[in-house]
Amino acid sequence: MNHATTHNKTARRTKAKTTPHPVGFLSKKGTTQTGRSRAAKRQAKSSACNHATNAFLSTSFLPKLELPETPLIFKDNERAVRDFYKSLTILSGQAPITPALTNQYSYPFNIAMALADLKDQLGHKENNLVLVEHRSRVFFARQEQYNTSQTLFYIPVEPLYLMLKSREYKRGAALLLSVCTYLYRVADIPYHRQENSYLYWMYDRTMEMQREAIEEEGDEIDDVMASEHKKVEYIGDRIEQKIRRRENLTWFGHRLSSFKSRSKFETQCFELAKKYFELYKQYPTTPVHTKIRGIPQKDDEDMHCISWENYISFYAKSTGRLADEVIEMVNYDLQEYSYIDEPVIYLPINGRSLKGENFDFEKRLFPLFDELTFLLDNYK
Fold first, then answer.
1. Using an 8 Å Cβ cutoff, are 232 and 315 in contact?
2. Over 60: is that where the pLDDT of 19 sits?
């Protein structure tokens, strides 16, 4: 199913950079947490880079990676040194290196010198190698990153609002309501009407730019965009009141078991809702950002990444003047960053597996974003 549309224009009344960054533009798939309350007008949220090509010998912790305050601080330093040299020996059997004899030095100089020598020997041959600590054991692991394909995973809510008001589509909409509640409450997808969300700022900034054009350049009021913005606010607030209700999760299974399809569209809603329900039952408390782990890059401390909250969100809809302007501005804004925060896992070089260190959840959830968006955008 290929239904991506790419927005390659620059934002209104804003000059584009002469040299684009590696990220480029993001594509919006589709045909065309509660309690956030910080200020709306702010710059796009970004986070420290966590990119596989720049991850060489970063120090981190598993699971739920806790970043150390300084490099080479472990829970048990004496044990960490033994584990380090043991893992280094394993690595020497997998890569063309000769481990430096640094164990005659005291901690932490022994490990620091060995890491520096290792980096010199490997160069960029093992640029996804990291040193991790898991349950007080220290070892080398290879970092793998889930590729989101530079896609904007924006889920429209206005179609759901219209479906709930339609006798023809209301039954299927009830299933999708449970789906959206799962994404809102469990997967922790940002909502565009919450003031600290990225898209709240983008909608607000789009309308502010129009007001500035009216005041400074004498442009006429764009009644269409003004009307669409009022709908974004009204419908967005009404749907958020619905999808935030935990009862939709309680009724999720019952809605599926009692559902009897009467049309092709209702069958599509049922099949999609069933996939989401299976994911919810297997991962009842897992948010989408669980494996997105920001690790500061020492080589370029000023480099920042596109945050997951920038490219995953609920929003109003994919059509209309305002929607075009907002997506255009998002594309322009995100091209300013060089990397994207994406899910990451760590695979120990000794071949052992760590619980939860896989992309099963992501490989199922991200494609479901596309299916949901496509269904909502094309329900008629």
1. no
2. no
DSSP string, 291-336: T------TT-TT-EEE-HHHHEEEES-S-SHHHHHHHHHHHHHHTT
Q: What angle do CA 201, 192, 10 make, to 5 degrees?
A: 50
Could you give the residue ranges of the DSSP H alpha helices within the chain? 77-92, 109-122, 158-164, 170-181, 198-217, 223-243, 247-250, 252-257, 264-282, 308-311, 321-334, 360-377
Report which residue type is found at 332.
Y
For 60-119, the DSSP string reads EEESS-PPPSSTT--SSHHHHHHHHHHHHHHHHTTSS------TTSPTTHHHHHHHHHHH
Query: One-letter amino acid identity for 274?
Result: K
Q: Which amino acid is at 243?
A: I
- Distance CA(344)–CA(73), nearest Å, equals 22
**Of 31 and 120, the one with more pLDDT:** 120
Per-residue pLDDT band for 87 (boundaries 50, 70, 90) equals: very high
Q: What is the pTM of this model?
A: 0.81
- The amino acid that residue 179 corresponds to is V
Q: What is the pLDDT of residue 28?
A: 62
Give the mean pLDDT of 233-255: 98
Coil, helix or strand for 281?
helix
Q: How confident is the model at residue 27 (pLDDT cuts 50, 70, 90)?
A: low
Partnered with residue 312 across adjacent β-strands are: 153
Classify residue 40 by burial, with Cβ atoms within 10 Å: 0-12, 13-18, 19+: middle
Measured torsion, CA atoms of residues 194, 199, 202, 203, in degrees rounded to the nearest 10 = -70
**Does residue 212 or residue 304 have the better pLDDT?**
212
Nearest residue to 145 (alpha-carbon basis) of 3, 305, 292: 292
Residue 354, token pair as written in the block: 């760590």
Q: Tell me: the pLDDT tens digits for 316-364?
A: 999 999 999 999 999 999 988 888 999 999 999 999 888 889 999 999 9
Q: What's the CA angle centered on 75, arms 59 and 91, to 5 degrees? A: 45
DSSP annotation of 133 reads E
Give per-residue pLDDT as tens, 126-163: 788 888 888 888 999 999 999 999 899 999 999 999 99
